[in-house]
Specification:
There is one protein chain. This protein is of the alpha/beta class. α2 packs across α3, α3 runs parallel beside α4 and α7 crosses α8. The longest helix is centred in the middle third of the chain and has 18 residues. It contains 11 helices and 12 strands. The model has no long low-confidence stretch (mean pLDDT 95).
Length: 327
């Protein structure tokens, strides 16, 4: 008679045959950095703050002490305009943060989110044009040189990886060519390859001040019901354009997509555990409805089981601390 329970009897026995391993090195900590002094509370994301430059440095130091090796930066500028010019300004807030982090923590990996939505006064990921029906849409081809310029400015500031998230057709190719032409052929591109028009982004839009003032992003982000063919096509295009990493965003409602894309391509897979996923779990924990530590770690293990090599998550500091305690 087979008795699988024999292998579950003690913590040591369970650990001995555990297939899925979760470690702090696999976590990427998202950080919001704003211009000004002091940290700012984000009401929809308990425990997450908008940081000033000293606050970002303190968080990087905390992350490094816990064994986390990577952060991704999102900027909140003082000035916004139709083209999002502060995204590619040499003295932009993200560029300044990258430079300061790399000066103090030279071996720490800094990923720059390469997009325009936090920097445009309309909240979209590129310049707007009339769509012919009385509405507005993003001018895809006008956005490409701006995204490429943003990536080069981030690499020049010291970014180890650039991560284009605008979901513009051709953005990875435009960024790869611009980086190579500017002498940054060594800088990888982490493609937000499969990014859905999701309701799970709500808290992020408050945090980054990027809620669209007109329309929504469904005309360029993916349909949640689009299925695997669309996901594989988007990923295949980014691979052909020179992506070094592939990302699926959001993660929790798209575990199946992570697995399908992971199985189809040989590139490292990143899962983005987004703001709404964080907020709903955090709210339930604060209400006493579930065990936060147990549920967070179980969720992160699910991303790894689905095929994620790295996980971008607002739980990163807590998770790394819990993993350290368990050791």
């Amino acid at each position: 008679m087979q008795r699988p329970r024999r292998l579950r009897r003690t913590p040591a026995l369970r650990a001995l045959t555990r297939e899925i391993r979760l470690s702090a090195e696999q976590l990427i900590l998202p950080l919001f950095v704003h211009e000004g002094v002091g940290d700012q509370v984000i009401g929809t994301m308990p425990g997450v703050l908008r940081h000033d430059l000293p606050g970002v440095l303190a968080k990087v130091q905390e992350a490094q002490a816990l064994g986390i090796g990577s952060v991704i930066l999102f900027g909140i500028p003082d000035h916004k305009d139709p083209d999002g010019s502060q995204a590619y300004a040499g003295d932009g807030i993200v560029q300044k943060a990258i430079t300061e982090i790399k000066a103090r923590f030279p071996t720490f990996t800094v990923i720059a989110d390469t997009c325009l939505c936090e920097y445009t006064n309309h909240g979209h990921c590129g310049p707007l044009i009339a769509d012919g029906t009385g509405g507005w849409t993003v001018d895809n081809d006008a956005a490409l040189p701006l995204l490429a310029q943003t990536a080069v400015s981030q690499a020049r500031a010291g970014a180890d990886i650039v991560a284009p998230s605008a979901m513009m057709d051709g953005q990875v190719g435009a960024i790869r060519a611009a980086l190579d032409d500017a002498g940054f052929g060594h800088v990888p591109v982490m493609a937000y390859a499969v990014k859905y028009a999701s309701g799970y982004y709500g808290p992020f839009r408050e945090a980054a001040g990027s809620t669209p003032s007109v329309g929504d992003r469904a005309s360029y982000q993916m349909d949640p019901a689009g299925g695997y063919r669309e996901a594989l096509r988007e990923a295949r295009l980014d691979v052909a354009e020179g992506a070094d990493y592939l990302m699926v965003k959001p993660a929790l409602a798209y575990l199946d997509v992570i697995r399908v894309v992971k199985d189809a391509f040989e590139l490292p897979m990143v899962a983005y555990n987004v703001s709404g996923e964080y907020a709903m779990l955090k709210a339930a924990a604060l209400a006493g409805m579930l065990d936060e530590k147990r549920t967070v770690l179980e969720t992160l293990v699910a991303f790894r089981r689905a095929g994620a090599d790295a996980i971008m998550t607002y739980h990163a500091l807590d998770a790394a601390r819990w993993l350290q305690e368990e050791k």
